[in-house]
Amino acid sequence: MIRLWLQVALFGGWGGHTSYNDLVAPEEIWHRFYSMGTVGVRFLIERRLQPGLGLELGRFISQDRRQARFSQTRWTSIGFSLRSRFLKKSLSPVLELYAFRLTATPRTVEDKSVPGAPASLSANGLGWAAGLSWRWSSMGEIALLYVRRRPQTNLLEGVPGPARDRIEGFLGQIAFYLLSTEPTRPRFR
């Protein structure tokens, strides 16, 4: 039976990741640094299943030193998530599925549009996150997640590539539960 609790979790996140991009042509070697932040609302239908809405802001810097190419991309995405916390214990594995709409603006090092690419682009995407969550009380929780987003575009750098691109990183989250209706235990049994 699913119990509907009058609880809302506000969460914020931050993260960064440096990676070698393996989704481009063999002669290209793109190195990236990611940074992202997120804020949103989760509805606690039950303690282990949490649908939510979130706004994510991010930026990454990409460079291919051998070909002297550089780009910086800022993005904004809004999406729907479905989060599952597997155990009722205070420490639990977490899995999150995410569907989103992304808007991105690739720019050169001079902060101009990349030649031959649109000034801004929009794409739908899917993603997931997995990690570990620690609920320190009935009022909040902290989680560390590995996040992977896959927008349905190959123009995030402004340079067309042979495959769709991805955004990935490590994300820390802190959540506070509002309107907690945690049942109180009786003093005497």
Would you kindly provide a written description of the structure presented here, covering whatever features stand out?
The chain is an all-beta fold. The protein is built from no helices and eight strands. The chain has strands at 8-21, 30-43, 49-64, 69-85, 91-107, 121-137, 140-151, 167-178. Strands 1-2-3-4-5-6-7-8 form an eight-stranded antiparallel barrel. Residues 1-6 have low confidence and may be disordered.
List the uncertain runs: 1-6
Helix/strand structural class: mainly beta
Count of runs of 4 or more consecutive helical residues: 0
Distance between the termini: 25 Å
Strand element count: 8
Proportion of beta-strand residues: over 45%
For the biggest sheet, the summary is:
8 strands, antiparallel, barrel
Which key features would you list for this structure?
single chain, 189 residues, mainly beta, eight-stranded antiparallel β-barrel, 0% helix, elongated, disordered N terminus
Brief write-up:
The protein has 189 residues and is mainly beta.
Secondary structure layout plus pairing:
Blueprint: E1 8-21, E2 30-43, E3 49-64, E4 69-85, E5 91-107, E6 121-137, E7 140-151, E8 167-178
Antiparallel strand pairs: 1-2, 1-8, 2-3, 3-4, 4-5, 5-6, 6-7, 7-8
